[in-house]
Amino acid sequence: MLNLLPGFHSLPLPVAQLTLSAVLKCGQSFRWHILPLPFPLADPLMTHEYRFCLRDRVVCLRQSEDTLFYRSVFPTPYPTPDQLVAKEVDTLNWLTNYFQLDVDLIQLYDDWSKRDLVFGRFRDRFAGIRILRQDPWENLVSFICSSNNNIARISKMVHSLCSNYSPPLLELCSPSSQIETSSYHPFPPPIALTGSEVTAKLRSLGFGYRADFIQRTAKMIVERCDSPTPPLDPESWLLTLRQKSTEEAREELLKFVGVGRKVADCVLLMSLDKKEVIPVDTHVHQIASKYYSISSTSGKKPKTNMTPKLYDEVSSKLANIWGEYAGWAHSVLFTADLKSFVDYGTTRTEEVTCNPTVSKSDKSSVDDQEAVNPKSSPLKRSRRPKSSAVEIPPASFSEPLDDSLYERIKRRRRG
């Protein structure tokens, strides 16, 4: 495999520990570029390249059944050979930290399957879904954008934010073309979004009411960090929340504009190491109600508006089922119930290019107002008992009807 991937380093890692096609599309991070490869390689899983722009490099990933391949692309002036060795070590450390590879996901899946028969039904089809350890500032802004929104549109907004408020780091050719290039932009720091003109600009880019939330939150963080002596770096201050308790960190996040309980809990789980936290919205409540007998006290169907009491009830009951890493387990079932994952795991060709454009076929939501249709949910379908019979595909509409059926239909119409 290595001779097929010049310039890439290899890290032995089975897909049961990390599956990029699920983790990078399930509504955790919205800034990855997912690009199709131009030709099939030896491994059927290796169909796409995944790219992410850091402050000083673009990290490129490919994956086979048992190996993660990675390389870094640097802007000019290029590192010397000795510098490059050290920088590739930095890249590997970033990957280990970002994907939290020190956590044995197979062991967690085993534990959740023993605790929960529902989880056991989906462990094989949705293997390798783990929580990312993201930069808190990027994660905070991304989930402010998630209010009443879907994954494709959030991705478009986040990429637009980067291209308008962060200078391009470098240009890189597409894997399928040596002519077409794309610019890669780091995520802008808080100071870049504090100006009074930012709100109007973001509104013109389609952010709607979220534009004001982002500008005011950026300003609050910068002003807060300017007051101490010496001043603090805003992004470094957010990282200090990892050392605080869950309640203390949540209290700090809730002070920001546009941050409610769910957004705060997403940041706690996906950036601040609070692995037990379960972000709850109507979508999660529907899953809890259907499969874990957790419903509103009135006995009615889950409501769109999540009350604090109901939020705490759903979160605590699911945490009791899944244990210490409950937030991680929740992410697996959340992914399994997304509309864009309805056929996931049934074929290796389910993935599409994920560039910062809205796709009509991907309206999966990370917010209350965009809960999936239960009729299309793989969780609902999986309740049927497994059968060893070969599944016969339905006939095409272009196939002619047999004479007897055709005559019956004509008689019925005449009658």
Protein architecture, described:
This protein has 415 residues and is an alpha+beta fold. It has a domain at 134-171 and 186-272: Hypothetical protein, domain 2 (Endonuclease III, domain 1, Orthogonal Bundle), CATH 1.10.340. Helices cover 39% and strands 8% of the residues. The chain contains 16 helices and seven strands. The chain has helices at residues 20-23, 81-98, 105-115, 117-120, 136-144, 151-165, 198-204, 210-226, 234-239, 246-253, 261-271, 282-292, 308-322, 326-336, 378-381, 403-414, and strands spanning 9-12, 33-36, 48-53, 58-63, 67-73, 170-173, 181-184. The strands form two sheets. A five-stranded antiparallel β-sheet has the order 1-5-4-3-2, with helices on one face. It has a two-stranded antiparallel sheet with strand order 6-7. Helix 5 (136-144) packs antiparallel against helix 11. The N and C termini lie far apart (67 Å).
